[in-house]
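Support case: NAP complex. Customer-provided input:
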Amino acid sequence: MPLILDGNRVRDEIKSECRPRVERVLANAGRPPGLSVVLVGDNPASQVYVRSKTKTAGELGIYNETITPPASITTDELLALVNELDNRPEVDGILVQLPLPKQIDEQRILLAVSPDKDVDGFHPCNVGRLATGRPGPRSCTPAGIIELLKRYEIPIAGKQAVVVGRSDIVGKPMSFLLLQENATVTICHSKTRDLPAVCRTADILVAAIGRPAMVTADFIRPGAVVVDVGINRITDRAEAERIFDPSRLADFDKRGSLLVGDVNPVDMARISSAYTPVPGGVGPLTIAMLMKNTIESAERRTGLC
Ligand code: NAP
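Agent response - structure generated as follows:
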């Protein structure tokens, strides 16, 4: 039976480690760590993500606020808002929820968040720190995956790791973090030739593609550790029948949809030695790591480390 890497369990561990650190900032600085979230417009998915982030911050005693400019905001107006937050001493972390409306120059906005308050780890300065192995905030989802692997004592050093996906948010930082842990890393993308053959070389296979159940049995070396980053909602019953074990179809009929990752769940459970389920694997870790980054920023900014 493969080991199921339980993201909810690791999230709870990380959160319980955060609580005393929040207390310590409060005791030393006379204020808790502070997180400002900028949520532009009314994208329902973004609203759900932001609510989960601020709810978790609230549970941990982190001061949090959500600023909600209208979708019609200009790049200059949003820059002014980010600069204002950057100048507020009690704000340790600034998170600009993506995606931004089309008229906004996303790169200019992300550059405007000072590297010390960049709790998403997206600023080029922090990407450079990651690439050169210097301390700094790391992109939350890949950092959470490393936490998960370490807490399950999955060896990384010397292993062959294949990351499918090269986004700035997941694929690239994931590859750098695995390299930092001394894995031998291959990065794949949509132009990679014979993707299944490359993936079959992996001791650790990370799928961050955004295509439902694209990674099937022929991609997975028997005994590999499989990390499925994808979150895709299936609403078509025929697709659900193709992807899931028949025992899951009752769930589909009840809800009208099911979540699936980028890896076929039946193949992953059959062939891997350990894997992250969807939901309940990688997903829960992202917010926990955001909290950790916010607390670390507060600790740095208040002279605790
Ligand atoms: P993204 O920016 O769309 O990047 C997708 C990557 O996959 C790209 O590098 C793309 O290659 C590659 N790709 C697409 N089709 C491919 C194919 N047929 N063969 C090989 N590579 C292919 O997506 P992302 O933001 O990295 O997110 C990836 C997935 O992770 C999504 O399902 C997203 O919802 C999920 N996600 C989950 C969390 C979490 O907390 N669990 C957080 C973030 C993202 P090119 O570069 O060549 O186009």
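The longest strand covers residues 34-38.

Case will auto-close in a few days if no follow-up is received.
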